[in-house]
Fold this sequence. Notes:
Layout: E1 5-6, E2 9-10, H1 15-38, H2 40-46, H3 51-72, H4 77-101, H5 108-134
Antiparallel strand pairs: 1-2
Helix pairs in contact: 1-2, 1-3, 3-4, 4-5
Amino acid sequence: MNGKIIRNRIRPKWMMPLVIAAIVFGFATVISGGKSLFTEVGSVAAGNYVPFVLWFNFVAGFAYIFAGVGMAQDQAWSKKLAVFIAAATCLVFVFFGIHIAMGGSYENRTVMAMVLRSGFWLIVVRLLYLRFKMVNLSSL
């Protein structure tokens, strides 16, 4: 295994790009969500946004950042947080689908964003599972 040793464990080379992606994704989510929620220009630009999806994504952005910091520090709890983020995102996506099925207004870009968010966090969960399986942390 190639990478840096963290607490006598070797960090895989893919971990830092994953950490950076999670943190950048989090900041981008907080900034775009904040603009849409708290500025008139952002609200107009958001179009037919679905309030519960927008609020969830805005708050989740902070969790993305926190999870990224935990992953950077090789904290086992970051796996649990990533599982929570992935599950919550998928659940909101389901409710968003119900909203659409019931004739609610929405933007196509929101559908694509939710696909991206769900997919990203499901991949993060899988990679963290492999990471902590490698270091034999069966207590998770």
